[in-house]
Amino acid sequence: MRLPLDDTRSRIAATAAGLIFLVGSCAIQAVPAPTTRPTPAPLPTLNPDRIAQGRAIYSQFCASCHGANAEGAPNWEQPDARGDLPAPPHDDSGHTWRHSDTQLAEIILGGLRDTFNKTPELTMPPFSGRLSDEEVSAVVTYFKRLWSPEHREFQEQQNRRPSMPSPSPGGAR
Ligand code: HEC
Description:
Layout: H1 4-30, H2 48-61, H3 63-66, H4 101-110, H5 133-145, H6 149-160
The structure holds heme C.
The site of heme C has 26 residues, from helix 3 and helix 4.
């Protein structure tokens, strides 16, 4: 036969269990639900002096092939007589913004070989020894000035990724 006291005890136990459950589910609720699109970190501000420095270096060393305003060679998507692709734009219409800062510095310092270029010369000459790391980074800052916020955001994401294998010469598009 059950004593009334036993009954009270089991009711208290049940209530306590219920409370613990409630508190537990509240704790779960308190964790913010993961948002599908995290708010992107604000884009780093570009220093106007670095842009100007980069633009000056660009005009001296790069504009002859890539165009006065980084618009690329005319018909840059058509292979030339040798089968090489002409110099692409660095503004929003090209694909420079797809590469991380590290990859861009590697391309600029090391030069680039077109996939179809089997000659001893590189398609784009290397600038290592002619431009310092700091000058190369200034040129890249100038390019960033030409990109839309969406493309800049994409490029910043590439910068935040763990280091990727270096692009093979000519394979980086
Ligand atoms: C003699 C012509 C020439 C000069 C000078 C030159 N480039 Fe290039 N560059 C090219 C060509 C051609 C390509 C494309 C090669 C290929 O992929 O076939 C290229 C590709 C690039 C790319 C890769 C773009 C991409 O989206 O894959 C970058 C970055 C670049 N150049 C930056 C520079 C910078 C910065 C300078 C000046 C410091 C410079 N280039 C000077 C001819 C030149």
